[in-house]
Amino acid sequence: MPVVDVQPDELRRLTGHEEKSDEEFKDDLFALGLEFEGVTEDGAFQLEFGPDRLDRLSVEGVARSLRYQYGDARGVTVPKTNDPDWTIVVDESVPEERPYVTGAVVRGVDLDEAALDSLIQLQEKLHATMGRKRAKGAIGIHDLTMLKGDVLSEQSTGNAITYTGIEPDGDTFVALDSNEELTPAEVLEQHDTGRKYADLVSEYERYPAIYDEIGLFSFPPVINGRRTEVTTDSRELFVELTGTDQWTIDRMCNIICYALAARGATIEEVEVEYEGGTVVRPDFEVETKRVSHDRIETVLGVDLEMDEVIDLFERSGLDADAELGDETVYEVSIPPYRVDVLHPLDLVDDVGRAYGFNELEPRYPDVGTVGQRHERSRLEDAARTALVGLGFEDLLNFHMISEEENYERMDVEPGSGSVLGGGEPTSITEPYSEDYTMLRTWVLPSLTMVLENNTHRAYPQDLAEIGHVAHRDDDENTRVSEARHVAAVLARHDATYEDAKARLATLCNDFGVELETPATEHPSFIPGRTASVVIDGEEVGIVGELHPKVIVEHDLELPVAAFEFDLAALQ
Amino acid sequence: MRLPESQVAVLNAASATDERTIAQLAEATDLKPETVTGAVFDLRDDGLVTVTETVEEDVELTDEGVEYADDGLPEIRLYRAAMDVGGGDAVQMGQVIGASSLGGPQVDIALSNFARKGYGHIDSGELVPDADANPDADEEAAALSALVAGETVDTDVLDQLESRNLVVRHERTIRAVTLTDEGVTALMEGVEAAETVDRLTPEMLTSGEWEDVEFTEYNVEADAPEVRGGKKHILRQTADRVKDVLVGMGFSEMEGPHADADFWINDCLFMPQDHPARTHWDRFALDVPPMEDIPEDLINRVRSSHLNGVGDDGDGYHSPWSEDFARAVALRGHTTSLSMRYLSGHEVGELEPPQRYFSVEKVYRNDTLDPTHLLEFYQIEGWVMAEDLSVRDLMGTFEEFYSHFGITDIQFKPHYNPYTEPSFELFGRHPETNELIEIGNSGMFREEVLRPLGVECDVMAWGLALERLLMLMYGFDDIRDVHGTLCDLDLLRETEVLR
């Protein structure tokens, strides 16, 4: 979940509530769904929240939400915008993988250190969330005074920059935090930031590039040029965003613009000139969705007056117009910084938050159902109870295991399907740890590992586990054949085949099934002391004395008798 | 007073004025000395007699010692033979040995002691006796004779004889018994004999003999040897408890595959395909072919839900949606995949409201393994399907559930999940520490989830890690001690059972 650092002093200033203590803020923020996680070295609150309200990824957005909560602000507000002076021309050679661009000009910004830090944090957090680590959308913020616009035409007074695509070594520029003229390809190899984001564009035929009249000044989504770097002295900004989805970058742009507007800046539109037509950005259009009064009452479980509902909408930063009829329906206006409203129900949630969910009186649902355990779960439970009655310590091991433990150390060949445990592995594509690369095909490897890790504990060690096993089987719809196995080991100085069989026989007797144990061979067991577990005529497992090489492999110094079979045989 | 027969006999044979030893009492009572000893101790414990103990040493001749006492010590026999043969001059060894009639190991014994005790010396196969030596004054020989006669012997000589294995010394505790005042009183008031037994035998039961006996008292406070039985794993016990509670609340258990298509795990849940949790970092993708059999109409409805949303005013995600990705098979990251299968009608047929379902089963997360996080853990998952459910119903259900685990004062923190709205993180007071702790995640399934599945009513759901509940309730610090192959058997053996 995203974490945003917010200076409580900034919060006081931006909300206008100088009197609020840190503790009061923490409670108010918790009510908004922002959880206090701690403070940073320089005293900022670290606030964690669900990745829906991405407009709260900066102190400006958090302050706005608090102002609504306090009732200082109501309804939808849209920053005033000035007419466009600048144009972003999208050249036909723009990389087809990253065709979209948007932007805004912001004038009259007053960036002190705190404001600049907040802007940089907002940019980074938006990259990490909506921007999908810059793959879907990347933001570049430039000092406008360092840009020299192309003259579009003789009639126009406006300026233009161009979003285009160039050969990887097609031009050079000096990137941020660098002193060298580098080509984009060289940036990917030599610059720290370039290396970090190289994967985003390295497969592209042409690299994204933004030009003004002077030349190349930005290499999105990787890095900006040094020429247009924003500092606390910057008073006018050019914000550009490139990405793979227009809506996404437009909303990211809106969130940036709202944050800057909250600090008194003026937003100026830009024109984006695509081959197919020109659009004006930022897109501050207010969308509407319709939600019925009845639905709100049903979801919250309370009766509400219409005025009350409209008030709650406005306190959420929304506007609502009631349409009276057979049923009351609200047409709700949604501000353009909201990225989380996909359905009218999301608006009901806002009403609930404004009402205060914790104000609602819990009630037990007035519907009757009859509960029961699943048949498989009952069987497993009965078998486990029987094993415990036989003196086994019930164990619980991981379903994931390494091939070495599952096969090699048990002396079993992968893909020797006729042997218990020899099924094809269900392998994890990109294992995180070499200890967990596949699902276990049988349970005994886990139990012998437990024996191996507990040689310092008192014997006898009689252990059992009823657990999940799986092997690859392309005939299954999931491509994986899953089962539950009953497995047990008796590690004691005088353990014999007979000890294992005796317990197995008792278990079978408990479940009223017929056990036969014809002689067989299994690589993990001593020849001549190994039998198939045949239950009601079907071969379902193995019983015997573990082979000394398996015992020694697991650093054990005493005999181990064991059995394992498919739980379903006890059904 | 009734006492066991042996104790009565001993009591009668003992005196208040004279000390009687065990041996004397045994003779007087005609009981075995060990029986008398046992009776004496029991009487002492009852305060009827006092016992004084002295330690005495018994010296016993070994077979070899007896032989030398009769025949003389080998070195003296050798000396006398040498004097007889040579009259004090050096004599040939063989000649002397023949004359002494010593044989076997006695020769070596004689030779080694001959020189040691100054009877002469041995020089190049010749024996030179010391004519001045006096075998009649030999201390060891004298001591042997004295021991035969039952006389005491000087300790130094006794040590010497013991080192030659001619005697064995035993320490012996002599117990002397005297009647106490209580003992005298008891005797005067009359003591009757009662039979006692150690063990109740089958014969006693069948013969009826048990009616006439008294049972020896045990020290019932003494430690008994440890007996180890098996028990259910503590996490299973916790799971059972959760299942009991949920079944009691009307929930039925779900069951389904651990390896499943992303379609069931994530797409049905309205998780956008470019959601961070769906990247390879968090997910255990399996190296198997994609799942083929997914109902085509369901796929189309889910795709539409992602791309266009649900309803007139619904928006989809501004993210690409690929059917190939949906069909890819992975280990489930939550058991909500089961909920999707059940709600879609593909597990137990179309469900009509009301319904309650749950599962307590394993899920897999590609997370860092540490004391509180496992790569695989148990998720408690539950949902309620009904017409017109409200947030209040959801809250009431959770209050009921958590109250069974001692967690009360539940707080509902508004939260975001891609698949529920409204959503809540649940917080409750820890029963021991009173700390506010996160105890689950919940919400009402979105219409974008339900409508493609064909569900037209409301469904509320929640989830929680079983391990978290266990750790909260029973205070384990490191979940790896109980779950997995690194588990500590002693910890499992000593963990209290759940009740």
Automatic annotation (TrEMBL), chain A:
InterPro entries: aa-tRNA-synth_II/BPL/LPL, B3/B4_tRNA-bd, DNA-bd_dom_put_sf, Phe-tRNA-ligase_IIc_bsu, Phe-tRNA-synth_IIc_bsu_arc_euk, Phe-tRNA_synthase-like_B3/B4, Phe_tRNA_ligase_beta2_arc, PheRS_beta_core. SMART domains: B3_4, B5. Residues 9-20 have a biased composition (Basic and acidic residues). It catalyses: tRNA(Phe) + L-phenylalanine + ATP = L-phenylalanyl-tRNA(Phe) + AMP + diphosphate + H(+). It is found in: Cytoplasm. Residues 1-20, 409-428 are annotated as: Disordered. The keyword Cytoplasm applies. Mg(2+) binds at residues 340, 346, 349-350. Residues 284-362 form the B5 domain. Its main location: cytoplasm. It is an enzyme of class 6 (ligase). Keywords: Aminoacyl-tRNA synthetase, ATP-binding, Cytoplasm, Ligase, Magnesium, Metal-binding, Nucleotide-binding, Protein biosynthesis. GO terms for molecular function: phenylalanine-tRNA ligase activity. Its cofactor is Mg(2+). The keyword Manganese does not apply. Its EC number is 6.1.1.20. Tetramer of two alpha and two beta subunits. NCBIfam families: pheT_arch. Belongs to the phenylalanyl-tRNA synthetase beta subunit family. Type 2 subfamily. This is Phenylalanine--tRNA ligase beta subunit. It comes from Haloferax larsenii.
